[in-house]
Amino acid sequence: RTKLSRTVLAVAVLLAATMIAWAFTRTPAEARPASAAHDHAAMTARDEGQGPVALDAAQAQRIGVTYAAVEAGPVERQVRIVAQVTWDETRLRTVTSRLEGYVERLHVDWTGRPVRAGEPLLDLYAPMAVTAQQELLVARGLEGRVAGGTAEAREGARELAEAARRRLRQWEVPAEVVARAEVTGEAQRTFALRAPASGVVLEKNVVAGQRIMPGDPLYRLADLGTVWLEGEVFEQDLAAVRPGLPVTATFPALPGVERAGTIQYVYPTLNPETRTARVRVALANPGLVLKPGMYATLQFATRVASGLTIPRSAVLVTGQRSLVFLKRPDGRFTPREVQLGATADQRIQVLSGLAAGDTVVASATFLLDAESNLGTLLGGMGNMPGMDMTAPESTATPAGRTGPATAPAHPHAAPPAPPAGHDHHAMPGMDMPADTGRR
Prior knowledge:
Blueprint: H1 2-25, H2 31-48, H3 57-62, E1 67-69, E2 71-87, E3 92-95, E4 101-106, E5 114-115, E6 120-125, H4 127-145, H5 151-170, H6 175-184, E7 190-194, E8 199-204, E9 211-212, E10 219-222, E11 226-234, E12 246-251, E13 254-266, E14 276-284, E15 295-311, E16 316-317, E17 322-327, E18 333-343, E19 347-352, E20 359-361, H7 365-381, E21 394-396, E22 402-404
Helix pairs in contact: 2-7, 4-5
């Protein structure tokens, strides 16, 4: 019982000493409202804004600070689309025959060959053309025989001859072939089909000796002196695309070559899968260097807004607000909240917060923001409890090592127990007297 009583008494004394030490070392109640007020003021200062940053010219150059003026003007965005060179559909020609016949000879016998307007493509034997020529020759002979007859006879012979000529014209038998037959009095067995326009042979669907029927496509020709560039514009850019808009075309196959043109047509339908619409640009093609099938890049500027603009790199977006750093006349940089509008490739519209002629930081904005936040944080924490503490000095230990100096005892703290009386079961730092008794 005596040992138990002594143990209970020791624990009670230890608890009392701990409570007394806590009472005298805690922050006084009067200081707490001031500290709370200081913390609230610091937080309010940080919430309401950031402090200005002061840098000299050397420091600004070292961290890469550059400047830009707030300018008034249009906000333009560059749009780039992929296009492909194709032939001008208005310059395509298909060569056909209006008569049944047989190909006697091919003058143009390979695909890709350039031809000139009026150049013979093939010689055609058409029995119906030969028959019509013979009817014309008969009518001409009849005209000669009835020249001294009645007017009705002469008119009938003339109508017969004219009907034969008309059939030959409708069948597109060349006029020189008909004239030669009338002069020589002998029907021409073959005649040439000629190119209706200059161009390049895209398709050749005929060979020598082949029988052809009226309307069969024999050749397909394209005049490549002018080509089309057809590209796909995304749905969100369609509002700014209109016929007559200037564009610049570049070609991977022709490095360094740029061609200027205008949008000729915007197709009225939208591809539901790609959400794009086709646009067309017509370009002159001297030397035929632009070949159908080539890829191209079309670039054009679209105006999305007008007003005050600054470089996009000048804006620091924090998630809740957008900041820029305004250069003041005294050389300091002040954070300024701005409201942003339309965005272009390099510049962004400012709706409020700046005026024309202001100078803002165009680069290293993030570093200035970090400096401003650090200055505001340190300024708000300068008077907080514990911020005036200095690092403890080092003292030499008996073993020759340095360690933290022993802190002076609080005047009301309980004195530490002698080291020799420590119990090896006690927790570190608990100056609890050893229980020397055993039950």
